Amino acid sequence: MLFARVTLVGCGLIGGSFAMALRAAGEVGEIVGFDRNPVVAARAVDLGIADRCEARLEDAVIDADLVLLAVPVARTAEVLAAIAPRLRADAIVTDVGSTKQSVIAVARTALGAAIARFVPGHPIAGREIHGPGAALVDLFRGRRVLLTPLPENDEDVVVRVEAAWIACGARVDRIDAAAHDAVLSAVSHLPHLLAYALVAQIAEAPDADLKFSLSGGGFRDFTRIAASSPEMWRDVAIANRDALLKDLDAYRSRLDVLRQWVADRDAESLEAMFVCASTARTRLADPR
Question: Which of 56, 93, 215, 261 is the most exposed place for a label (fewest CB within 10 A)?
């Protein structure tokens, strides 16, 4: 098997799905968990996600071959600082954060020379519900996982992390951290903010109940991701601030143009943009 012992720091949707898939593939011996919410930790054990969960974070990583950080990106620094003194010298650490440059920066400070065994990662998979009960053994099957290896990483360390994700059924690609943050801002972080903003706008309206009761499939499809973890997406928005501000400004400019076309009854311009967008969306390849 790939790993005798894997530690999950965070036993929710992503960490739980990773553990279930790795176990199903026969590539892990023992899975030890930690979650700051003891109810979540207990639920992870009940569901068979973890063999046991430790009450103290520092104890959970003892003798781990691989440590997976599945926590909001703003907690990465405190988690790494806490576990660094207890990591085995040859332990590999990886994460699943939606931003990479911010994670790498705090990892360098927290891990020091041990940064050579930290491989930043990001699975492009998820659900709008979270917690261990949402975990799926096949969540990553056919999905992409992006790794942003560091100059300090030995190739064998990166390959072992790749092998773990491949065992989970994922397709693994390597990408530069800055490029990752710029691209994911446009196709993931911005859409989440837009969905949250639209739902909040309607929720604060005096006739919110009526509007929600009459919403159709289009509204539900567009806003599904607004049910995602608020804590996680709060942290992503702040961590990827620079790239996201550029995309928000570009989108706001697009909305200004769209508003002007509607005000001017410019049917030709509206239809031309709709055709362009519809064609692009139809041709969009399934990311799996």
Answer: 56
Q: What are the Cα distances from residue 264, in Å, to 4, 251, 258, 259?
A: 66, 20, 10, 9
What is the Cα–Cα distance from 256 to 94, expressed in whole angstroms? 41
Task: Return the CATH superfamily for domain 179-283.
Answer: 6-phosphogluconate dehydrogenase C-terminal like domain (1.10.3660.10)
Tokens of 185: 């801002």
Domain locations along the chain: 3-175, 179-283
**Number of helices followed by number of strands (H, E) in the chain:** 13, 9
Tens of pLDDT along 65-104? 999 999 999 999 999 999 999 999 999 999 999 999 999 9
Q: What is the pTM of this model?
A: 0.90
Confirm if 178 and 212 have CB atoms less than 8 A apart.
no
Per-residue pLDDT tens over the stretch 213-245? 999 999 999 999 999 889 989 999 999 999 999
Contact 41, 11 (CB under 8 A): yes
